[in-house]
Amino acid sequence: MKTINIRVNCVYLTFAISLLVGLTAASRSTAADSRTPNQSQPWMNKALPAGQRANLLLRAMTLDEKITLVHGAGYPTPLKAYAGYVPPNTRLGIPALKLGDGRAGVGNGAKDVTLLPAPIAASASWDTVLMNAFGRVLGEEEWGKGTNVALGPTIDIVRVPEWGRAFETYGEDPYLNGQMAVAEIKGIQSQGPIADANMYLTMNQETHRFRQDSVVGERTLQEIYLPPFQAAIQQGHVGTIMCAYVKTNGIFSCESPHLLSDFLRNELDFSGWVMSDWGATHSTVAAVRAGFDQEMPSGRYYGQALKTAVENGQVSTATLDEHVRRILVTMFRHGLFDRRQPGNWNTNVRTAEQALFSRKAAEQGMVLLKNQSNILPLAGNRSIAVIGADGGTKPLAEGGGSSHVVPPYVVSPLEGIRKRLGKGAQLGYSDGSDLAQAADVARRAAVAIVFASAPESEGSDRPNLELPGNQNELISSVASANPNTIVVLNSGGAVLMPWIGQVRAVIEAWYSGQEDGNAIAAVLFGDVNPSGKLPLTFPRTAMEIPTNAPRQWPGVDGRSVYAEELDVGYRWYDARHIQPLFPFGYGLSYTTFKLTHLIISPQKLTGGQSLNDARVTATVSIANTGRRAGAQVVEAYVEQPKTNGEPPRQLCGFAKVFLRSGETRDVTLTLNRRAFSIYDVQRARWKSPAGTYELLVGTSSRDLPLSTRITVQR
Ligand code: BGC
């Protein structure tokens, strides 16, 4: 509830102020989707390139029409739908922009949609094919609801493990986040909507998010926080980027020339448009000059104020045209002028297929963290105690805030297990509110499964990494009552597990969407062999996390100093030789695997220019040495020469493979060229210092049995 209040107070205050402007504009617009392309308007000629069509259209636009396009106008009337809206221009045939939230399904209160697992769960699959399908499902439902700009994915790095939006992201590694972003963006955009990579940049905490200043060095920006956006732009061809609420080094994201012009336009060659997060615009002229294109959700700075600035010469028409052009080019490029959207906000877009996919994604993302004496899978076990509200009445299937989805249903673990076991199963249940009663229920069963959760929501960070309420005590008392205790966690990120030594097994199920209980039952009973891997580190204690000092998080006097620099996530633990509870990239299976025969090619690279053209591959042989079929993730990490000043190991490639029992396959990883380079701040460019780079390959950041070398020469 707290989150909602914050959103109402802060975001929608700005929103409400300028809603008047918006509503007038919105009511001017009529049936956007019923427009008929007028072939006498030359920009409607589909045969012309997007840039040319945009130029032709731009020439026909009045100042008012241009201004209308660079800011939001509330909601389409009379419907209250979507997160943002730009009215159509019927004179010129410009379709409306309908911007919809969607990280784990269509948001903004839409009905009859599919609730997918949280993005962190899909990322934990380490399967880019699955992530692409995740994007396709999301894109299809958004498009079916009339949305043509999908506000997602959230591709920021989980720097602070308590971050209230960790569940919305892909985790703590720049390379993993980048690859997942590419897969999801391509999926979304393949279905019609333009995707929106957010939140740009250094949006890594909720506390003080409307005024917080991230103080971060240039090398860290380049090596840790920019790469997901670089991948989203250069490989994913994302159409829009959302600039964040926060400041980076003293300047708000949506008016930062360094972030918007130097990085996005000049370095990354981004040709789409930048919209603000809701209420994240703070100026007119400064924002325009910085390279910022579109204010959301209103026109406080980019409405009348911008018009006046153009009229009095503070902003040139040519500059305004550049911003308008970026929006138009992107709309043309993505077919928004040429394709009709059959559905609208009231269309039922959920299907049985999407529900199946939701279940599959949840199953593939589950991470088996502990499995002492192979207590799992529970095949044939019919006397089970289900403990915890999460297991029964209140399964926590999603995170809160703008990514909230109205689920059509949520299958609870109790229902899922009951269905899986069929008639005759002895199922006990306790919601865990009374510890003695819960222990009693546990004592009477052969196996006790405690369902525990840590809620996360936009608007506030978790106070710490403890499971809230009495859940730690609950797990301990159940474990004392029944030696066969299993814990299933619903969380959006790391939690501390003081009881880890007392329980036999732990599954991290994340927020697993509408099929929560079915997916959990499938993993518990071995219908699905778990193959998820942690996309973020689970620390052993609160003392050892990288952002432990108050000046790092939540910050002092509104400044959060990124003092850990490059040592984000597992890089920190590795650099300090701290053994976390469960490391990045870790996850068990019901079968066993063996890796052999690592070969890298080429073994030598020449530094400088030619490195950019090098295609480095690593091939490794992997065998399923156990009795069950299963999937494994092959992970490659690079260890740079000490003198490069890099963290000890960094993920540079991965691939997920499925193997039948006894099967062996060769897997080829294409390595990220960045693996062999560092950012040179003085020269403002990437370079590859000469030296020997070690390549380590294995199945977790702390289990890397194979290694080989690659030499970079001058
Ligand atoms: C969030 C965005 C979201 C927007 C629109 C903001 O508060 O930070 O992620 O897209 O609201 O709902």
Quick overview:
The protein is built from 19 helices and 26 strands. It is an alpha/beta fold and 714 residues long.
Please explain how this structure is put together.
This protein is of the alpha/beta class. It has three domains: 14-333, TIM Barrel, CATH 3.20.20; 367-561, Glycoside hydrolase family 3 C-terminal domain (Rossmann fold, 3-Layer(aba) Sandwich), CATH 3.40.50.1700; 591-713, Immunoglobulins (Immunoglobulin-like). The chain is built from 19 helices and 26 strands. The strands form six sheets. It has a six-stranded mixed beta sheet with strand order 1-2-3-4-6-9. It has a six-stranded mixed beta sheet with strand order 10-15-14-13-11-12, sandwiched between helices. It has a five-stranded mixed beta sheet with strand order 18-26-25-20-21, with no helix packed on it. Helix 6 (128-144) runs antiparallel to helix 14 (352-365). The radius of gyration is 26 Å and the shape is globular. The model is unreliable at 1-36 (pLDDT under 50). It binds beta-D-glucopyranose. Beta-D-glucopyranose is lined by residues 7, 11, 83, 101, 151, 198, 277-278, 402. Beta-D-glucopyranose binds next to helix 1.
